[in-house]
Q: What sequence folds into this?
């Protein structure tokens, strides 16, 4: 069974940086894609970024392009989201997700596995 465990969230001032980690276990992920979604209070969950595990091809939401970088460490079975120049609107619970198709699409319904989330709060 796939397990995804996020870490690295916290409180940071606007303009600061954070790196989120998602430790994946339970499968061989060579055919998977991993993604980050986030949900702000009172808002729907939204796509942030995704990466194809094997090829390393990435996808980003327009709102985070140039500020966030997704990467994966195959040896550690871990996906990272490096976030710089954080803004208050980046505040939310960040979820790691995985799909078996390897697609880096932005649709959350395509992802069958989810972590519990980690809180990111950016103060102004």
A:
């Amino acid at each position: 069974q796939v397990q995804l465990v996020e870490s690295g969230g916290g409180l940071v001032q606007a303009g600061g940086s954070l790196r989120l980690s998602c430790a994946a276990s339970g499968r061989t992920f060579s055919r998977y894609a991993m993604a980050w979604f986030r949900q702000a209070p009172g808002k729907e969950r939204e796509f942030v970024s995704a990466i194809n595990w094997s090829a390393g091809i990435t996808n980003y939401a327009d709102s985070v392009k140039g500020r966030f970088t997704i990467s994966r460490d195959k040896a550690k079975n871990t996906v990272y989201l490096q976030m710089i120049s954080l803004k208050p609107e980046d505040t939310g619970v960040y979820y790691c997700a995985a799909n078996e198709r390897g697609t880096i699409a932005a649709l959350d319904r395509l992802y069958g596995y989810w972590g519990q989330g980690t809180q990111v709060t950016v103060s102004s």
Observations:
- The CA atoms of residues 13 and 49 lie 22 Å apart.
- The chain has a mean pLDDT of 97.
- The radius of gyration is 13 Å.
